[in-house]
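In response to reviewer comment 3 from the previous cycle, which asked for concrete evidence that the modeling workflow produces usable outputs, we include below a single protein chain processed end to end. The sequence was submitted unchanged, and the resulting structure tokens are shown without manual editing.
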Amino acid sequence: MSGDRARAKIDGALRGRTALITGGTRGLGLEIARAYLDAGAAGVCICGRDRAAVELALAELAERTAPGQRVLGEVADVSVPEEVRRLVEIALADLGGLTILVCNAGVYGPKGNIAEVSWAEWARAIEINLFGSVLPARAVAAHFAERGYGKIVQLSGGGATGPLAGLSAYAASKAAVVRFSETLACELREHNVDVNAIAPGALNTRMLAEVLAAGPERVGADFHRRALEQRESGGVPLRRGAELAVFLGSAASDGITGKLLSAVWDPWSELPGRRGELDSDLFTLRRIVPRDRGLDWGDA
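The workflow returned the following structure tokens.
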């Protein structure tokens, strides 16, 4: 997608809408916040666990606002139910309601074989990645259902679609996030609430630096080699994932729900014209059976 086409799709796409973005102080979360303001969102609330990072991001976003736009920044741990409830209450009150929730907060967690990594670190990664995706969605679900409209965007990644040796907490939690999104989409469909997940591609963020620092002995030689190649190539631009997050938060994606979409590989901008074909298992997690691979055995 060219820069001019992307800009044409973004400008004004979120006019009048309000959003809560978790993990919005750096990396992709901050880029999504920038894109939402560029797309005309009336209000954006970001959160993070570090107060200094929240204040720094908030100052940058405040300089980006146009008349009539508002940005908020709150310190919150999205794996803690009480903090999530407080965060959502503040966003609802100060922004006058919410239209969009983006669950972006996430970590790789411990790196190494499951028998060797710290169990406390493994469980903590599940809390941040999975609970941190479920709790905010749970907190806004009633609000969205009551108003009869809403958008929930979850961040997934390569861990959801294939095994990642040495990163089992990340892979397991991201697969769970996608299946949770598909399930929540079923629960909220009757209320016109769309729930989708984004695979943003290989991003050069602090998480890449963590993989490189861990070394091939902890994350596997192949994954470490690909991380080195990614660092050298520059990785996927953050803007691609942000553009998909704008699309999924906009009216253009109304009725598209329960999908895992790749910002890099999938023709997501064409999906509004294919709604009739999307009421299927396209862009979902599923089990592969022998017949899917041209084999004539395995069916009951």
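Residues 119-147 form the longest helix (29 residues). We consider this sufficient to address the reviewer's concern, and the full set will be provided in the supplementary archive.
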